[in-house]
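Recall the central idea of this unit: under ordinary conditions, the amino acid sequence of a chain determines the structure it adopts. In this exercise we apply that idea directly, starting from the sequence alone.
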Amino acid sequence: MVVIGLTGSIGMGKTAVAKMFAAEGVPVFDADAAVHRLQGPGGRLLGSIEALFPGSTGPDGIDRAAIGKAVFGNPVALAALEKIVHPAVAEERRAFLRRHRARPMVVLDIPLLFEKGGAKQVDLIVVASAPAWMQRRRVLARPGMTPEKFRRIVRLQTPDHVKRRRADVIVETGVQKHETRTQIRHLLTCLRAKLRR
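Accordingly, the structure predicted from this sequence is:
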């Protein structure tokens, strides 16, 4: 099995690229979706998070505003939260790989692939990337996003130019969607041909 690690900074189109892989029949593990499940209504991490950050959870799961206030700009609190979340996500990822072990390839959609050492666990690194002005425009269009919040998020992430340098494949998302889809299909054609050899 070829394990493709898909990453990209906020607003770079990584989610759209993941959907394109899925549409081509490649199983995709979405780390963000796993986090939402684990922290959503009835999620198994809610008790641990509430114990550490009282008042940060409720019947709808985690209160994003409350947890954001508790950890943004506080590296110690953020590290404590990550200590709860990251092992649980890793467990979900291992279960996904077991479920799909007979497949020729899978995609691990991991936003912090470089930042958290996940690059060592994949065979091929794909980085979704777009021009900085486009990234900014996309992110600032999101509800509740501010320029200051955007700057804080970007500071926590490996810069795009570094990700591009470390990538095995760069998927350009600053183009028309059909052009991005063509890049994905070309990559999959090459990988499938290699696997047949």
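Residues 41-99 form one domain.
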